[in-house]
Give the backbone structure.
Amino acid sequence: MEEIKSSAEKPGAVAWLAGGLAWAVPGAGHFYQGYAARGLLIGGTVFAMYFVGWLLGGHLYGLHNAADTGFLAYVFGFCDLGTGLLYLSSLLANIAVTDHSQLGTSEYGDRFLMVAGLLNYLSMLDAFDIAAGRKK
Amino acid sequence: MRHFLVMVVFAAFVSVIFGIVGREKPFERFVYGTKIFAEFVGIGLALAWVLYWLPI
């Protein structure tokens, strides 16, 4: 049986790489460690949630709309940033940056985009822990 | 109806990730994910019912 390391042990470079990959591309951290099905499920879920959020009229927060939204733009932007390169590339390509508040579902969309990021942070920590030998 | 559908879709996405991250064995993951999904939808409906009777 595979041994689970104590949390006091320092995680190695592989753990940081797995965590970084998991943040950059949802599911990649698990995929990199050989958990293909888990990686595909996590990646598929985060991407689908992001896409549904965008379809509902949600938009991304961050430095670009801090002037209109105030301090909350940083908090919400941090949540959105969880989707990694998806967030950064969307900002560069001007996708999901416009506020569609005229739509009845736009606030739902905002929450979907944020929670997609938060769930990816969670899966990033999971990938890190697996690579560090703290869980299977 | 659209609001309920959005809530169900949201609960489904969240419960998939919680199920994967929260448990280590495949069957336990399935049970935990299903439980989270049922709790999201059940509590959502219960809160909606309570708010329906509140005079606000």
